[in-house]
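Q: Please design a sequence for this.
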């Protein structure tokens, strides 16, 4: 996941103008733009710094509002998933433990990262200090890393249980999944350390002295290496692994399990059920892969292009593209419960048992609607 430093384009645009003044320093000892620079900006660019406030752009309220919606849906959905799994004994399966770990990564990301990132858009400065600057970006990478590894592990597990159903009964246990989940978190914390090392506070001028949380790499090579690592570890390699697992799984499921001897009804019914199961799993596979690709693809490709394309120029247009890409990646944490949990029949049954009053009301409403339609048919014939 990218650093939050990519959102302070107004500072970068102003510094791009100031860099044209190579004969003298624009910032004085107090961090303000000098009188000479102010005169130059006014004469050449028609930019006046005196007595102005930062412009209140649309993204200053729209992006935080969208992030708030993501937090609301994501926190409620993921918390309900964990609650249902922990409350019902029959829900404590290997696959559901993976889903619970995935929900935990999403909740951690939504609580520890999204609120701080949302403040960047309405506020001109980073107000949370150096520690939170490093911590927020570090936890952002940790949760992204843990999410991708969990998705990969879950895909490998589903492939294993489908291709080798008998062997998996001996090796797939909830205790082993818990140990693997702990290892995923420890590995993610270790692998994400560089993202805390290369974050720092910097000062600049944007309608007054401002403080920013930015990336600070020793060399351009360090920046490119870390960007490439993020693209491979958090996007490309997990995506390739997931696609390979489900491709192999679907290929295995396409083989006939029962060799029909005659065309009796029982054999035909088994064949139809098998075909329906394969179709349902195929749809789930497509949703999983497409969701992962669509949500994470834009921001990963944007960061990769920004780091390796020498002709890349930062502008307000690219700034808006990056905002959209960030929103897409953040939304993945709120839609995961829908895809990985609520589409499952066992989860739906568990939710009906946990919240019977909600589903009972829906059933009663549906029954009344059916009765009304029947009365209308009897009286009008339509």
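A: Design:
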């Amino acid at each position: 996941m990218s650093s939050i430093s990519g959102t302070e384009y107004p500072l970068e645009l102003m510094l791009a103008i100031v860099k044209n003044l190579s004969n003298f320093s624009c910032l004085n000892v107090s961090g303000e733009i000098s009188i000479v620079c102010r005169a130059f900006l006014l004469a050449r660019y028609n930019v006046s710094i005196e007595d102005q406030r930062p412009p209140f752009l649309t993204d200053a309220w729209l992006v935080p509002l969208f992030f708030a919606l993501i937090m609301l849906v994501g926190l409620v959905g993921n918390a309900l998933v964990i609650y249902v799994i922990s409350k019902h004994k029959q829900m404590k399966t290997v696959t559901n433990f993976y889903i619970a770990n995935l929900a935990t990564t999403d909740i951690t990301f939504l609580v520890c990262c999204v609120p701080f990132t949302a403040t960047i858009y309405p506020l001109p400065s980073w107000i949370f200090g150096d520690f939170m600057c490093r911590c927020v970006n570090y936890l952002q990478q940790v949760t992204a890393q843990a999410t991708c590894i969990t998705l990969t592990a879950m895909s490998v597990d589903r492939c294993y249980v489908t291709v080798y159903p008998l062997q998996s009964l001996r090796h797939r246990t909830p205790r082993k999944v818990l140990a693997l989940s702990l290892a995923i978190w420890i590995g993610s914390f270790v692998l994400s350390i560089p993202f805390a090392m290369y974050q720092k506070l910097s000062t600049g001028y944007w309608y007054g002295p401002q403080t920013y949380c930015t990336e600070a790499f020793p060399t351009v090579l360090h920046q490119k290496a870390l960007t490439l690592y993020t693209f491979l570890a958090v996007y490309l390699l997990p995506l390739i692994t997931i696609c390979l697992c489900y491709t192999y799984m679907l290929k295995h499921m396409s083989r006939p399990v029962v060799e029909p001897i005659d065309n009796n009804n029982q054999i035909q019914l088994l064949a139809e059920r098998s075909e329906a199961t394969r179709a349902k799993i195929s749809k789930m596979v497509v949703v999983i892969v497409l969701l992962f690709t669509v949500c994470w693809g834009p921001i990963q490709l944007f960061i990769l292009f920004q780091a390796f394309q020498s002709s890349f120029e930062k502008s307000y247009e690219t700034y808006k593209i990056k905002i959209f890409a960030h929103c897409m990646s953040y939304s993945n944490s709120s839609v995961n419960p829908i895809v990985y949990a609520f589409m499952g029949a066992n989860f739906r049954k568990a939710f009906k048992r946990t919240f019977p009053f909600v589903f009972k009301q829906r059933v009663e409403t549906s029954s009344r609607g059916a009765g009304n339609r029947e009365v209308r048919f009897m009286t009008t014939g339509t």
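Q: Thanks. Anything notable?
A: The chain has a mean pLDDT of 76. DSSP finds 14 helices and two strands in the chain.
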